[in-house]
Hints:
mainly alpha, 76% helix, 0% strand
Amino acid sequence: MENSVLITTLTIILPLVGAAIGYFVKQKIEEKKQLLSEVHKERRELYQRYVDLIVDILNNTKRGNKINEPEYVGKIFDFYKKYILYASPDVINAFSDYFQYLYHLNDTQELMSQKAHFSKLSLILYQMRKDLGLSNKNLGTNGERLFRAILVDFDSIMNQ
């Protein structure tokens, strides 16, 4: 008799405990999905602003227009303030490597190689695309072909 009461109690309690645990696990998974969805949306907007900024700089430079350097530097730092929270580690590292490259050039007064410059810029965009889950197939090893539509002599720059 005592065993049958214990078995009956366990058959009632165990499914309830299992259901409660399942509910909390599902709730946590849904919360994480919601957060990741919002982060992904913020990343897309942030990355698009960066792409717009880089294309504007390249377009103005290509046309021979002077760029308003303080304005663009301000926009890059605005991007920097937000990307720290939302970007993946690969994007953060690519962006940091690019700026370390620029800082090094300013310190040593070396001439900037266009190939190195565009390789570092394209790597940032490549990592952004990867972060968003987009395909980078046929864009080169580190996205070298991303700027091909903007630059007339892209192939000659990349072969310097």
